[in-house]
Structures are given as C-alpha cells and as structure tokens.
C-alpha cells in the first residue's frame, strides 16, 4: 500500500541525507515547479514583452525570477515543518472568517477561478501547435484531445507520474531554447552586452505597464507555483520524513536536514527557470522587436516560430513546434495537477469534503481532473485570443501574489506559525523579496492611475 504523505506519523520518519549527491536523489518538487513555470509565461508573456519593449524591460524578467524565491522557500519550510496543506495554513491567518474558513481561503478560491481564462489560453496555444503539425484536425478538435489527455494523466493522482513527466518536458524544451539563444549570435539578430545592460536600467515606458505587470505575475515563481510547491513538498515526503513537530532535538535535526534538501530543490528549479526565461526574453527582443512582429491571436505560434527559424534555420520549424507543444502542454499539465489538489483542499476547508480521508480526496481530485479541462476548453473556444487570455491571468496572479506575501509574513512572524530559526542572509533575502514584490505592485498601480 502506498503511504499517504498527508498523514504525518512517527512511522514515516526518515533521516535526511547529508552529502550533496544523496540530496540530489530526493529532488523532485522543483521539476514540477519548472514544468509549470517554463511554459506559457515564458513562451508567450515573456516573448511578447520582449517583442514590444525590446531590451528595455529585461530587468522586469530578471527581478521576477529572483525576488520571489524567498517567498517560495518560506512556503516550502512551512510544508516541511508542519505537514499542513497551504489552505490549512491559510485558515490560521489573521482576519475575518467567511463561513467556516479564513477570508484568504475564499479569496484564493475566487481569484483562481478567474484564472480559468488564462489556462484556457494555455490549452488553446497547445491546440494551435498541434493543428500546425497535424492540420487534418481543426484547432477545436485538438483542444478537446488535449483536455482528455491531461485528464487521463492526472485523475489517478500519482505524484511520481507528475514528477517524471514534468522532468522530461522541461529538459526537452530547455535544451532547444538555450541552443537557439547561442545560435542567434551567429545571425544578423545577434545582441551585445550593451543591449543587455540597457535592459537593466530599471526604466519602463508607461504604455508597457499592463503588459509588464502581467509578465511579472506569470514569470518566475508566480503565486500559483508558490502555493503549489507546498503540495509537491508534502507529496514528495519531506514533511512525512521529518515527522510530527514535537520540537525535540531529534525533530529539529530532521527538520533542518529536510529543509536543506528543499532549499537545494528550489535552487535547482530557480536556475532552470531563470535561464530559460531570460533566453525567451532575449530572443523576443533581438528577433521579433527588430522585425516589428508582435504575436497576437491564433497567429501567435507561427510568429514565435521566427525565434527559432531565424536563429537555427527554416529546417528547425518542426522541431520548434514539437518543443512549443511540450512547453505549453507542460504548463497545462502541471496546472491541472495543482488545481485538482488546491480545490480539493479548499473544499476541505469549506467543510464540503474530508480532505484527509484518502478515498474522498482521491475521488474529488479525479472529478476535478475531468471538470477543469472541460471548462478550459469552453473558455478558449469562446474567446480564442490566447495572448490576451494568458496576460489577463498574469494580472490576476499579481493580485494573488500580494495574498501570498501576506501569508509568508505570517508564516515567518505570527505566533500561530512556529518556525525554525533562520540565518541573517535568509532574513535579508526574505525582506528583499517582500519589498520588491510590494514595490512592483505599487509602481504598477501608480502608473495605471496616471
């Protein structure tokens, strides 16, 4: 019988690995995180921003990738030392209650529902790619095929399948993107260090604010991925291996050991998604901006194909389309895995199901795994503007990110959330993350009002 890692007992305790090599064997949550991050946000939102802004907004992408990681680590630590799901931890946050649960749980529920449009755009982008590869079927038919495929993959609720599938998709498209970035230096679209430096001046034209806010909300570790990371840390076994939080010397040693494994997992993920995100932006800025081509509507993928055909030649078009499918599909795949768990968790907080009953949780996840893809297909077929759909989700994500920051502050300092003592470096990184996110949010608000 497979152990349920949501149930923390002394029987599940395992001593943490000590050597670097042995720690690598326990990586995994970051691969799922990367599959979600290295997806539509990078392929679409980042590239569109580069195509419209040139190198000017490069700093937004770098900041987005780097500053949120400390918030992610705080959520990961919360999962390791408590074994609580995100919504169980949110239920303890300060503030009024809505029905049976905390206001933040209700806000997360409502904001995530608004992101249905975004994921519909991601699914539609995947369908467009397949219709270009196999034009015998129209886009709407491929959208239905993709919806059925991800439902089949997720409804059984196997963590290992999610992790391994995510790793394969991340490796495949990361390799193609990095090779393309190197190859562009041998074309007329090559860029220089002066171009990159010009994009790190912390300037942003007013007409790009909405797009930049959307890109900031989607790229790097977005609000969704930060929350989702808890589920993957729990299902990987970090919390179960740490054992019940009895605050003994042995527990503290295990907690620090498994937290260090989580840190390494998050660091590897950050390296992957930062490198790929920067590559997407630079390709968009160097190729599409010079050509004056802005990806829009169903012509999105064909326009983005110029990133690869201009740097690697026309023969790479098919390879690009295959890679584009995997990068878009990986986001939809990881999102369904996350949403099916998140909404089951929320339903548990609402009192609609017993989330900690493995049978009821599995049934709810299975039901949601079929429901959400159907809703996403309908959203795409109704709107059919993938770029607008995806960017709109980024704006919603930026609002949700403020809730995530509030939660992280409470995890760090509120009496309801006992935590492990952290180093001065970690504290500085944490506050840099909080202040950067708040500054971007306020900056964007001021620009919008003006």
Give me a quick take on this structure.
By secondary structure, the protein is mainly α. The protein has helices spanning 20-24, 29-37, 40-53, 58-67, 69-82, 86-90, 103-114, 116-133, 139-154, 159-183, 193-198, 209-218, 223-236, 238-242, 249-291, 300-304, 306-312, 317-350, 358-383, 386-413, 424-449; strands spanning 97-98, 101-102.
Polypeptide structure, described:
With 450 residues, this protein is mainly alpha-helical. The chain is built from 21 helices and 2 strands. The protein has helices spanning 20-24, 29-37, 40-53, 58-67, 69-82, 86-90, 103-114, 116-133, 139-154, 159-183, 193-198, 209-218, 223-236, 238-242, 249-291, 300-304, 306-312, 317-350, 358-383, 386-413, 424-449; strands at 97-98, 101-102. It is globular and about 65 Å long. The protein starts with 19 loop residues before the first helix and ends with a helix.
Tell me the radius of gyration. Answer: 21 Å
SSE sequence, one letter per element = HHHHHHEEHHHHHHHHHHHHHHH
Q: Can you list the strand order of the major beta sheet? A: 1-2
- Uncertain segments: none
Number of helices: 21
Shape: globular
Q: Which secondary-structure class do the elements indicate?
A: mainly alpha
- In angstroms, what separates the terminal alpha carbons? 60 Å
The number of E-state strands comes to 2
Beta-strand share of residues: under 5%
- Average pLDDT, to the nearest integer? 83
Please summarize the sheet with the most strands. 2 strands, antiparallel
Quaternary organisation: single chain
């Amino acid at each position: 019988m497979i152990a349920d890692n949501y149930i923390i007992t002394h029987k599940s305790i395992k001593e943490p690995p000590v050597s670097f090599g042995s720690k690598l064997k326990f990586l995994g949550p970051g691969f799922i995180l990367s599959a979600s991050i290295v997806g539509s946000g990078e392929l679409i939102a980042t590239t569109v921003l580069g195509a419209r802004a040139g190198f000017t907004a490069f700093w937004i992408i770098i900041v987005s990738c780097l500053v949120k990681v400390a918030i992610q680590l705080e959520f990961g630590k919360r999962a390791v030392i408590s074994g609580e799901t995100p919504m169980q931890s949110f239920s303890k946050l300060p503030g009024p209650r809505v029905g049976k649960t905390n206001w933040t749980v209700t806000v997360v529920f409502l904001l995530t529902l608004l992101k249905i449009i975004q994921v519909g755009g991601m699914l539609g982008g995947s369908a467009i790619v397949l219709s270009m590869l196999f034009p015998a079927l129209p886009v709407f038919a491929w959208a239905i095929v993709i919806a059925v495929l991800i439902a089949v993959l997720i409804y059984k609720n196997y963590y290992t399948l999610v992790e391994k599938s995510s790793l394969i998709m991340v490796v495949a498209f990361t390799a193609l993107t990095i090779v393309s970035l190197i190859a562009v230096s041998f074309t007329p679209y090559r860029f220089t260090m002066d171009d990159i430096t010009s994009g790190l001046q912390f300037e942003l034209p007013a007409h790009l604010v909405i797009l930049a806010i959307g890109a900031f909300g989607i790229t790097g570790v977005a609000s969704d991925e930060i929350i989702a990371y808890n589920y993957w840390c729990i299902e990987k076994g970090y919390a179960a291996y740490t054992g019940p939080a009895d605050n003994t010397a042995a527990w503290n040693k295990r907690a620090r050991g498994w937290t260090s494994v989580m840190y390494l997992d998050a660091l590897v993920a950050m390296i992957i998604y930062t490198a790929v995100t920067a590559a997407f932006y630079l390709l968009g800025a160097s190729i599409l901006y010079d050509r004056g081509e802005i990806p829009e509507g169903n012509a999105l993928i064909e326009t983005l194909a110029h990133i690869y055909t201009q740097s690697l030649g026309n023969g790479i078009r098919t390879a690009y389309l295959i890679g584009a499918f995997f990068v878009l599909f990986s986001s939809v795949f990881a999102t369904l895995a996350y949403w099916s768990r998140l909404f089951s968790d929320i339903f548990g907080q609402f009192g609609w199901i017993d989330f900690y009953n493995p049978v009821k949780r599995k049934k709810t996840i299975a039901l949601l795994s079929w429901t959400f893809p159907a809703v996403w297909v309908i959203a795409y077929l109704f709107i059919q503007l993938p770029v607008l759909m995806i960017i709109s989700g980024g704006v919603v994500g930026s609002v949700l990110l403020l809730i995530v920051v509030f939660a992280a502050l409470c995890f760090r300092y509120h009496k309801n959330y006992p935590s492990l003592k952290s180093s001065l470096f970690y504290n500085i990184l944490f506050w840099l993350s909080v202040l950067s996110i708040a500054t971007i949010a306020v900056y964007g608000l001021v620009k919008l009002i003006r």
